[in-house]
């Protein structure tokens, strides 16, 4: 039986990597583990950037938050190329138990968030399926048109680059757990704390910092944080770039709300779903300028490590030891979520 969550590197190599249909010469970035986008040469100096993710409809979150989650995660993938998404195709295979009013709310919010991010929905497919009870209710593909030679992927980190993160670790984990178990969070930390942690959900776009990084000197690669958290995102980027890394976990930004929530729910902030944070690699000479730019836009950021040669391995420096990173089979968020359900937390 397959394990829940995104596939790992071995599964990708064994089943997908070399089985991607006809290999056209226009493909500049083909499917690759740890890479957020594909890139196609359109000729005349133009490229097409695309990325796909599930469309989510999560009853516990509601139509508004489900729509935001669907739109922002794919938008974040495109943003790592240094461009804002422009077009989208949406496929919906929704449960046949969904009411007309529920569909209207969900689609109105999907339209609203795409409109807000200046993304045109240009097509897709919509249907209702008997017995469909998954929270993954379809898929969304976004596109951007860019210029040849002027784009980023997560596969170009270079030896000696500094690794920068933005915002805080485990933002999405903190926000979803707060929204999913509001009574528990309020009971332990109060109403104001709950409002603050829930609001992190709307702060999970990385488009702003990605576009800042794209025009900053010395930037080599970008990757958005999702499953696996900060450690997982850096690991995926180095797999894509064929590099090693050294991370100082004491430098990783973990805001106070996430520290308290992770202690309550028992998730590892370093290795939990972290949408809203962006990993950027930059030449040492460009790091200070990039940090200054991000800080001037009130985007928290920090240098957390260094890109190393591949044979250096994947090293994590903590207060007490240096350890070799091993990519976990599942994100620690899921254990925290299901444990809270078993405890009947509300």
Write the layout of secondary structure elements.
Elements lengths: L8 H7 L11 E3 L8 E6 L2 E11 L5 H18 L7 E9 L4 H17 L3 E10 L6 E12 L14 E5 L4 H10 L1 H8 L1 H9 L7 H8 L4 E6 L4 H13 L2 E5 L7 H10 L12 E5 L1 H13 L4 E8 L5 E4 L4 E3 L7 H11 L4
Parallel strand pairs: 4-5, 9-12
Antiparallel strand pairs: 1-2, 2-3, 3-6, 4-6, 7-10, 7-11, 8-10, 9-11, 12-13
Helix pairs in contact: 2-3, 4-6, 4-9, 5-6
Instruction: Please estimate the helix content.
Output: 25-40%
Give the helix tally: 11
Q: What is the string of SSEs from the N terminus onward?
A: HEEEHEHEEEHHHHEHEHEHEEEH
Query: How do the strands line up in the largest sheet?
Result: 8-10-7-11-9-12-13
Overall CATH class of the largest domain: Alpha Beta
Percent range for β-strand residues: 25-35%
Structural class: alpha+beta
CATH topology of the largest domain: Phosphoribosyl-aminoimidazole Synthetase, Chain A, domain 2
The average pLDDT score comes to 96
Rg, Cα atoms, Å: 20 Å
**Count of discrete structural domains:** 2
Distance between the termini: 31 Å
Concise structural overview:
The chain is 36% helix and 25% strand. By secondary structure, it is α+β, with helices and mostly antiparallel strands.
Structure description:
The protein has 11 helices and 13 strands. The two termini are 31 Å apart. The chain has helices at 9-15, 62-79, 100-116, 171-180, 182-189, 191-199, 207-214, 229-241, 256-265, 284-296, 332-342; strands at 27-29, 38-43, 46-56, 87-95, 120-129, 136-147, 162-166, 219-224, 244-248, 278-282, 301-308, 314-317, 322-324. The protein has 2 domains: 21-147, PurM-like, N-terminal domain (60s Ribosomal Protein L30, Chain: A, 2-Layer Sandwich); 162-342, Alpha-Beta Complex (Phosphoribosyl-aminoimidazole Synthetase, Chain A, domain 2), CATH 3.90.650.10. With 346 residues, it is of the alpha+beta class. A 7-stranded mixed beta sheet has the order 8-10-7-11-9-12-13, with helices on both faces. Strands 1-2-3-6-4-5 form a 6-stranded mixed beta sheet. α4 crosses α6 (191-199) and α4 (171-180) crosses α9 (256-265). Helix content is 36%, strand content 25%.
């Amino acid at each position: 039986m397959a394990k829940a969550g995104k596939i790992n590197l071995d599964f990708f190599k064994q089943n997908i990597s070399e089985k991607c249909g006809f290999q056209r010469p226009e493909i500049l970035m083909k499917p690759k583990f740890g890479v957020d986008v594909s890139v196609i040469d359109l000729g005349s100096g133009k490229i097409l950037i695309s990325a796909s993710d599930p469309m989510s409809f999560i009853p516990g979150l509601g139509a508004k938050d489900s729509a935001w989650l669907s739109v922002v995660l794919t938008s974040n993938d495109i943003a790592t190329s240094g461009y804002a998404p422009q077009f989208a195709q949406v496929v919906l295979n929704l449960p046949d138990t969904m009411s007309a009013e529920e569909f209207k709310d969900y689609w109105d919010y999907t339209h609203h968030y795409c409109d807000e991010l200046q993304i045109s929905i240009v097509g897709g497919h919509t249907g209702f399926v008997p017995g469909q009870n998954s929270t993954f209710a379809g898929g969304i593909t976004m596109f951007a048109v860019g210029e040849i030679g002027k784009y980023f992927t997560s596969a170009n980190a270079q030896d000696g680059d500094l690794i920068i993160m933005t915002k805080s670790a485990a933002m999405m984990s903190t926000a979803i757990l707060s929204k999913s178990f509001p009574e528990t969070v309020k009971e332990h930390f109060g109403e104001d704390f709950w409002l603050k942690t829930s609001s992190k959900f709307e702060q999970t776009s990385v488009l702003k910092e990605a576009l800042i990084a794209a025009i900053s000197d010395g930037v080599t690669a970008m990757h958005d944080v999702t499953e696996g958290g900060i450690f997982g995102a850096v690991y995926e980027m180095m797999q894509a770039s064929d590099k090693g890394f050294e991370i100082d976990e004491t430098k990783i930004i973990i805001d106070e709300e996430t520290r308290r929530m992770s202690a309550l729910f028992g998730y590892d902030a370093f290795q939990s779903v972290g949408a809203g944070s962006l990993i950027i690699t930059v030449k040492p000479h460009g790091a200070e300028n990039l940090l200054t730019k991000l800080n001037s836009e009130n985007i928290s950021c920090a240098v957390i490590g260094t890109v190393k040669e591949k044979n250096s391995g994947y090293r994590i420096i903590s207060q007490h030891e240096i350890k070799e990173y091993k990519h976990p089979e599942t994100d620690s968020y899921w254990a925290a979520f299901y444990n809270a359900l078993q405890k009947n937390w509300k």
